[in-house]
Each structure stands twice: as C-alpha cells, then as structure tokens.
Amino acid sequence: MPLKIAVASGKGGTGKTTVSVNLQYFISKSLTDEVLLVDCDVEEPNDRIFFPDSKTTSTLEVTHAIPEIDRNKCLFCRKCVDYCEFNAIVVIPPAHFAEINASLCHSCGACSVACREGAIREKPHPLGKITTVNTGIGEGIVEGRLEVGSAMQTLMIKELKKNVSKHHRDADSDEIILFDAPPGTSCPVVETIADVDYVILVAEPTPFGLNDMTLMVELLVEMGKPFGVVINKAGLGNKEIYSFLKEQEIELLGEIPFNKEYAGKYAEGKLLQNIDPHARRCYSDIVTSIERRLLQDEGINYFKW
Amino acid sequence: MKTLITSTTSTPEGPFDKRFGRAAWFCVLDEKTGESTFIKNENAEGQSGIGTKTAEKVVELGVGKVISGDFGPKAKKLLDKFGVQMVIINEDLKVIDIINRIKG
C-alpha cells in the first residue's frame, strides 16, 4: 500500500503549501521518486503554481447528483423534508409548492428513499474538476478544484481521494502520497486526513498559531492519528508553542526560520528555484525526522534501501 | 392580513429579535382582529437551511408581511416567490412597540 501523509495546520497561512511542495521535492530527491502530491485545498488549490513548467495530463469533470421534485407526481406529504438532514427541501402543501435547494443539498440520496411516489429524480450537477499535472517532480500533482459557488468541499475531497486511490492502489508499492489539506479543523480537513497513516502539522509560533494548532492536536488525538509538528516562521511570535509541544510530548519534526526573502520567493511562485542551503538543510532534516518516525512506527516495510 | 414579527420571548413586552431564521419566537399579528399569538421557533438551533425552513413556515401560516432585522438570500428568494412583504427594522424595540406602530 502507498504510504499516505497529510500536511495540515488548523490556522490558515502557516505554510502547508510551502511544506507540501518542498517535502515532495526533497522526498523525490532523497527517498523515492514515487511521490505524489494531492492538493486537497479544493477551494483554492495552488500547489501547481510553484511548477511553472508543469503540463496538465488529464482533466476530469466531477458531478454530484442533485434531486429534483416532479410536482405533478408529488403528494406534498413532506416525508422527504423529514428525511433531509440539511433542510434543503421546501414543501408547502397549501401552495402545492415543492423544491430542492441545490446549494444546501449534500447528495445523500435520503429523499429518493423517502419518496414512494417516484416524484424525486436525481440529476447530475457540476461539482468540480480533478486535474492531473506532470511537474517533473516525483509523480506530479493531482488537484481538486471545487466549482465556484459550491459549498460541497468535503464531497469534492472525497471524489479526489477516490480518483487518487483508483490510480494508486498497488499493494506492493512503496509510493508516498502527500495530501495538502485545507486550513481549519472542520469536515473537509477530517475527510482529508481520515485514512492517512501520518499527519504533519505545520504551525507558527504565534498566539493564534498555538491556539489553532491546539485545536488540530485535539482533533488528531480524537481520531487516533500519529503526527508530528513542523514549526514554520520560527523566530516570530513567542516561545509558548515550544513549551506546549514539550508538555504534550509532541515530536518537533523540524523548524523553518522566518525569512522575508523566502516569503518573497513564495509570493513570486519561485519556492523551488535556487533553494538556499539553509532551507535545503531544514527540509532535509524534516524528511529525515519523518523517515525515522515512520520506521519506528511501521517497521521497515515502507522503504527499500 | 397576518404579520409575523420575530421575537426573543413569548410576550409582547419582550425585545424584538433581529434574526429571522434563528429568532426564538414568532409573534403572529392578525391585523383585522388585532390579536397576536406567539409560536415557538422549533428550528432556531438547527444546523443549516434555517432561513428557508422559516420562510416555508411563514408561507404555511398564510402571513403576508414579515418584520425582522434582516433576511438571508435563500429566505428572501422564497418569500419573494410567494409575494410576502419583508420589512427590516434596525432599532432595538419591544415587540409591543412594533405592534403599536402597525395599529397606528
């Protein structure tokens, strides 16, 4: 089975993308070239921006089924309304009105089960696009991009993961799949990390960073996921995050110092061009920490030496 | 015509609720008879789609005018569809103050 690692953060803007893109690069250089990056930040996927010479190899349009009510068949019994967990169905019997609100519908199919009259029929609606990109680094990128205006991030991530596992399910492979998670600790993040083997938390040493990382730590403990922390922008803020990690006995995988020049390179999309020796050392250390940690956890099955 | 006023409590003396879908109570005023009744909003604590749900309730009650602090886009669309007039009040008032204004 491929080894699945998610890069998550809690707080936005801590450096998930920076770490994901660099990790893929350094893993491909020092561990294995079979490393795929999956951009799960489906509301604004941006991993591929850092690969200006990348080429799209395939694009897949994804749809989800939205039910529609045929008012000629509908008895206005409101059974579908009772079944709908998301209040997406409006039925007003005296007005002979029945309608499904596509933006609230989660495509769960419950209303189709509820309706005995055959008044509900499902129709495909665009959900987003899954794009496979050849970047020249490892196995490239697979990116999910949610349709503008849609609120179905979790469903889009589910489809993205399904697509990835369809193409990467070789039981004997020592492939590594990196999942760049969306920010926050809500459903889309839970969906991204639900079946990964390991989570890398990217945190920044500020009061906000610590607060949001704590939320993420609570989530990961509840989900029983092994994880370690990378501190990005080290040198900013205060030292509280370090005391927290020590107190909770959480492994610090590595630190990336705050550096204005580096931030500038990110803004220009030039993260992987002329990587300075210092950043190179930081990421190599992180890869080594992760490798060591995984060897401890899972034995030597994952890597061929 | 019936008018619905969103309310934080079940009495006319209580403050008017500026939230539409998540108002705690609804005061339904019958402008013909001048009588008002209070209905508890059972969806106030729901997860999502509360505005739509409440608009559905308004139409079911046969209300022609709704007075609240604001209306979300989905509720607005549905109320518009059924020709329900929406009135927005931004002042901190008691429900009784609004009733008195209507009665003139």
TrEMBL record, chain A:
Keywords: Iron, Iron-sulfur, Metal-binding. Coiled coil: none annotated. One of its GO terms (molecular function) is metal ion binding. InterPro entries: 4Fe4S_Fe-S-bd (IPR017896), 4Fe4S_Fe_S_CS (IPR017900), CobQ/CobB/MinD/ParA_Nub-bd_dom (IPR002586), P-loop_NTPase (IPR027417). Pfam families: CbiA, Fer4. The keyword Nucleotidyltransferase does not apply. Residues 65-94, 96-125 form the 4Fe-4S ferredoxin-type domain. PROSITE patterns: 4FE4S_FER_1, 4FE4S_FER_2. It comes from the Bacteria. PANTHER family: 4FE-4S CLUSTER CONTAINING PARA FAMILY ATPASE PROTEIN (PTHR43063). This is MinD superfamily P-loop ATPase, contains an inserted ferredoxin domain.
From TrEMBL, chain B:
Residues 14-101 form the Dinitrogenase iron-molybdenum cofactor biosynthesis domain. Gene3D superfamilies: Dinitrogenase iron-molybdenum cofactor biosynthesis domain. It holds the Pfam family Nitro_FeMo-Co. InterPro entries: Di-Nase_FeMo-co_biosynth, DiNase_FeMo-co_biosyn_sf. This is Predicted Fe-Mo cluster-binding protein, NifX family. It comes from Thermophagus xiamenensis.
